[in-house]
Amino acid sequence: xxxxxxxxxxxxxxxxxxxxxxxxxxxxxxxxxxxxxxxxxxxxxxxxxxxxxxxxxxxxxxxxxxxxxxxxxxxxxxxxxxxxxxxxxxxxxxxxxxxxxxxxxxxxxxxxxxxxxxxxxxxxxxxxxxxxxxxxxxxxxxxxxxx
Amino acid sequence: xxxxxxxxxxxxxxxxxxxxxxxxxxxxxxxxxxxxxxxxxxxxxxxxxxxxxxxxxxxxxxxxxxxxxxxxxxxxxxxxxxxxxxxxxxxxxxxxxxxxxxxxxxxxxxxxxxxxxxxxxxxxxxxxxxxxxxxxxxxxxxxxxxxxxxxxxxxxxxxxxxxxxxxxxxxxxxxxxxxxxxxxxxxxxxxxxxxxxxxxxxxxxxxxxxxxxxxxxxxxxxxxxxxxxxxxxxxxxxxxxxxxxxxxxxxxxxxxxxxxxxxxxxxxxxxxxxxxxxxxxxxxxxxxxxxxxxxxxxxxxxxxxxxxxxxxxxxxxxxxxxxxxxxxxxxxxxxxxxxxxxxxxxxxxxxxxxxxxxxxxxxxxxxxxxxxxxxxxxxxxxxxxxxxxxxxxxxx
Lengths: 147, 396
What we know:
Largest sheet of chain B: 7 strands, mixed
Structural class of chain B: alpha/beta
Oligomer: heterodimer
Helix content of chain A: 25-40%
Distance between the termini of chain B: 63 Å
Strand content of chain A: 15-25%
Structural class of chain A: alpha+beta
Order of helices and strands of chain A: HHEHEEHEEE
Number of strands of chain B: 12
């Protein structure tokens, strides 16, 4: 991770001001955390990821939020979004095996009151994540010195 | 009997055109030959963006290839492209050019510069330009049989040009004033009042101005101001620009010249007989680049600004004085306190720390005591280079 000193240099600000701003962002919940961006395909993990489209019935009070928060409470759900279009919620669900994820869908998710239907897609390969290509850095094709 | 098939052949070197023979090849070239034999060099010597050409530009070039845009174009370039250029130049630089008669699409700004000088100069005509400058200027003036008159810009003045400097070089034979701001290799940008004074000089001396504004979009503290937007300058200026730097399209080799019809027509004649037209695919790529220029460029400018801030602070911290570069992607620190020449500094730095910088003398004699550090390379590379450079400076 970029050191505070380097961030200050790049922005042309004093380090104290950078520290103060970051602390403020953390306090206000604008910065929610820091994570390493992994190329999981290289790690040979016992892990499968499914993308699940869920149709739900919005509730009289709370709309989509109540059911979305109930679903998001499961630790298997790594991300969840409310979507426009043919379905309502998009979930990223992680498990050790295909069977484990299937069990989560059939035993936990589908039976929830308000869940109308689900459609599960298993992820096969990652090409790009959070703007970063998983093909590794490309060799620099430029001449080493040019005018 | 004479068996040697080479006998009777006069030295080929003696038969070269004397102007070509006597111009040394670029100092950058010599340095490249040394660097290219070494491994694991961190290079701050590269004068082109490290960013890839925006994907939509590359993708649309593939589409153009599929669609068969593989034929000659008009000598001036596709009219559709010239129309888009006209709009862009008006919006960005504040001067309007007619797409049919006042814009010529060229093979990079280098060709446009050569065309402009060849179209204007008679043997003995003098051209005022400022050093340190891009490596080709002096040679291109000489190839066009002109007389190069260099004005030395100085670090204490932010490598900007003043009217007094120009007056000192002006003679009755002065015909052309060449400008390049933002500047390679110094990163200098002119202040408004200085640009106005230079414009007044050109007007009062009735000079033709050739303004190479290839780095115009890459400014970090204030927007670029073009000399063509000043009163009385549009009608005496050949404005040069291209896609290499701001759109990261160096290999496409696409530039353009805007100017009064008589000058563009003269340049077009040389272009017609030597180049015919710029690459059709590159022209299609340029047209696509102009459709969404702001979003492509702004992200790169942000990143260059961060790097500029970082490298300026790092150089200052290690005790190498460096004027604050306001544009392009070069820092030009003063290394003279080390007590060796710029070339020796660059060679020793390469040998001991495997960091490549370009000696300032590659950009004119007054670049002695300076080196060019390009920050068109990744932040990790810049940081590593600064660690090694600091270690090198400390040891000397």
